[in-house]
Amino acid sequence: MANAVTGVEKIEIAPIATGQDIGTMPSTGWVTFQDIQEGSVTFTVPEVQVTNIRVEDKSGVRHVLPGETDPPEFSAASIWIDGAIVEMLFGGTWTSGTKTYAAPTTDVITQLAIRFTSKAYGGEKFVLEIPVASIVPGFDGSFTRDNMLAVSFTGRATTPVDSNGDALSPWGFKFEAVA
Fold first, then answer.
1. What is the mean pLDDT of residues 156-163?
2. Would residue 163 count as lying in a domain?
3. DSSP characters for 82-120?
4. The whole model's pTM is what?
């Protein structure tokens, strides 16, 4: 049975699985974003790009082949600035005792696993899982009375490979019943 998806309940990130488990969702290391900025969460799977094959002696398109297509993309932001999560996204160093963060000296694209869980609708939650995502972090917002600074990120699902070099699914979803 089909179901609708509405709202986001939580976003979790973790270091990607390694060794024989690469390409699977990790079982440990998950941290959860809180205070997800309203309207910030997106997920887009681009349409497959196509290559039209034409022949010289006839008009029209004879075949349509799949072409190069961009990977699925996502974005989100949180107004809850957690130093440990910032360190995971940006690199750099978070010192919890003094509550200080030092940014890395070079820009990074971080590879993490990510999971988006929707709010319940029709007795189920939609859970989107990306086992290996390339994430580009940032900060967004302004220092004003009517706004809050947010930790933000955009990312792309990448295609992991197994130990034989065979491509694995770059993303997937499931519906979970609400207890």
1. 90
2. yes
3. -HHHHHHHH-SEEETTTTEEE--SS---EEEEEEEEEEP
4. 0.88
